[in-house]
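Database export, one record per block. Field names are fixed; values are copied verbatim from the stored entry.
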Amino acid sequence: MIQTTKSLIVQKYGGSSLSSIDKVNAVAQKIVASAAGGRPIVVVVSAMGNTTSELIERAHAVSDEPPRRELDMLLSSGERMSMALLAMAIESLGRQAISLTGPQSGIATDGDHTNATITQVEPRRITRELAAGKIVIVAGYQGEGPNGEVTTLGRGGSDTTALALAGALNAERCEIYSDVNGVYTADPRLVDGPMHLERVDAELMVEYALRGARVLHPASVAFAHRHEVPLHALSTFGDDRHTVISSESGLSFSRESDGDPQVVGVTSRKARLRMRGAAEALRTMEPAFEQHGCSAEEILRRTAKDQHDYLLDLDDLPDPEGASERIARELHGKASVTDALASVSIVATASHVATLAGQVEQVLAEAGAPAVATYRRPLSVTCAVPADDRAAAVRALHESLVEAPLALTS
């Protein structure tokens, strides 16, 4: 750990916060205000707007299967553009700033191209620049492999970069800025007026993120939990409400409600594929799943004798439809494949999950969105439903089991 003379804060700004030059300038003003009085600030940035998706499209325009090494070289340029522009904007406001790439910031990885894991952080260059009075802007999502190659960290990589730096720099806290002011009990695009979480413990937040809550990446929340780094989820340009994620157990909401204090909320994902087949046959496919970008946390499995169910979420892949078709082809003859599915999950404390399992299926049946399959985990209950029923299922579960819990019989 590195000791600092003043309380250091690490801030991370996502692509939606930097999607235009006007927003870059607004973020620069926000950072300068945060650094008032000499507080040391390290800022981690994502690529602007949809830059990463656009770069992936260009790669596939010239190659059906772009080499992963070259893909990393290409994708890492998005964050580098953000960091340089933001540093320029801060300098124009009269404050010294410097932009650093992941390798320049001392972020070492295992060298797994397009899905690297951070193995060590040695932020000596960052501490020198902070000591010189500069605001340090770091390109997220990237590091340096053992052979000196640029690597990218995969989905949620900029969040992971911010948390890793916060831990290495002994930061007071890590602030993750996006276009929403923290965590809600449901996606506001699907549910009118969901409750805002003021505080949630890290274990529950990891599960909520794994099941589809998109404010924070599960790996970054898990990292914060392991290293005891307080994590705040805030809106870049919204009000002051935010969510604190910490190792302290429990839940609290920003307003009084009839909601269940043991339930974090309801979330969903477009599952794309459900596969059922012999356990051994599906196990042989796990490397292929991961090759297509499906991490273990994104695969829900239920074992029944020699049968496995897999529910694969391909939504965050550059080409989900193509990946779905390729996996289905590779599984031909090994398993039955069902597509056009969604998953809906309710996340709650461990003591409450057993009670919820039967209630979830009953609520969905009464809402006309019956579960195709149900998967229970220690902190959640997940159901596969037809994709067309996704929104109705989320609304029904939220109304019945979050807003005004019912005494249903299981």
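Remark 1: The chain has twelve helices and 22 strands.
Remark 2: The domain at 9-253 is CATH 3.40.1160.10 (Carbamate kinase).
End of record.
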